[in-house]
Amino acid sequence: MTFELQAQDPGSNARAGKVTTAHGVIETPIFMPVGTAATVKAVHQRELKEDIQAQIILGNTYHLYLRPGLDILEKAGGLHKFNGWDKPILTDSGGYQVFSLSGTRKIIEEGVKFKSHIDGSTHLFTPENVMDTQRTIGADIIMAFDECTPYPCEYDYAKNSMHRTHRWLKRCCERFDSTEGKYGFDQTLFPIVQGSTFRDLRTQSAEYIASMNREGNAIGGLSVGEPAEMMYEMTDLVCSILPKDKPRYLMGVGTPANILENIALGVDMFDCVLPTRNARNGMLFTTQGIINIRNQRWKDDFSPIDAELGGYTSTFYSKAYLRHLIHAQEYLAGMIASVHNLTFYLWLVKQAREQIKAGTFAAWKNVMVEKLMTRL
Ligand SMILES: CNc1nc2cc3c(=O)[nH]c(N)nc3c(CCO)c2[nH]1
């Protein structure tokens, strides 16, 4: 995997670049649709490629390990073959999902013991077996096994959790560097900065992660309920320490406004379930602001969902029609709303890339953030 810096914004720390992987190129800043269980929920691969113009999607170790399971994925020749997505894939390592999904789990030095949220069976994730699992899934970019430190938490907890994540990272690197890809293409491992919202811990973690000299770096432990200002302060601090010549991935972020603010701080890659999760309950992000399509006011508005966006779904269907589908609880409702929101997110980062290359990102960002927060 390589990263080429192409432009830096004169008025902020925003930068535009290009990540090259075995499955193709990713232009940054980029948004990565979340495809947890081998699918971006309710979206066809063709729509992802043609309408949304996604360049990379996420898969998840926790979910894929439990279902369909590694034997099926290996027999299929890896996740790219299994779901037919032939562009880049990134998989998260499962630590975060164990905490957000599995009712019972226990952290020990060895790893994390947990019960499957599907059938209650017990499992142990360790840095070593999570590397092997991600080798089998076959994602182009895989994440280190970490603990996403909960927020808020005591300083001592954050410190101990960070040091354990650093010890696990060392074990991830040893295992990953002593194994090969299973399907004939290279994979790369990103380490993850922790340290919660404590400046000295964030500095220590960013310095340690940077010292591992991997091909890209991630910022974890944020977008976990902390105030946006705190997220920005920690991201700004960590980005000032992480090397400029490596892509920076801020995990689990965020709203359109969060994404633009963090691009200005130097972040290159984002993922979030917001566009797909909120779509299913009728919250639409548009170039004019946020729409709750369930609202009465759209009942007889036959204008396109978002004429400015382009792409089949956002221009072919009307607001009134989508409102009807949502109220009727039709499957098509979630499909249309998900494709629309993802089209918007990819449109937004495309605009950001163009603004950065034109050297006008900083001013554009401030205007855009105001507009994006408008509730129509
Ligand atoms: C929605 N907010 C969020 N914060 C995160 C924080 C982390 C984190 O610290 N570590 C790992 N491995 N994954 C994370 C994820 C899943 C990203 O899809 C996060 N997602």
Automatic annotation (TrEMBL):
NCBIfam families per the UniProt record, alphabetical: Q_tRNA_tgt (TIGR00430), tgt_general (TIGR00449)
InterPro entries: ArchSynthase1/Queuine_TRR, TGT, TGT-like_sf, tRNA_ribo_trans-like
One cellular-component annotation, GO: cytosol
Protein name: Queuine tRNA-ribosyltransferase
Entry superkingdom: Bacteria
EC number: 2.4.2.29
Assembly mode: Homodimer. Within each dimer, one monomer is responsible for RNA recognition and catalysis, while the other monomer binds to the replacement base PreQ1.
Taxonomic source organism: Adhaeribacter soli
UniProt family annotation: Belongs to the queuine tRNA-ribosyltransferase family.
GO MF annotation list: tRNA-guanosine(34) queuine transglycosylase activity
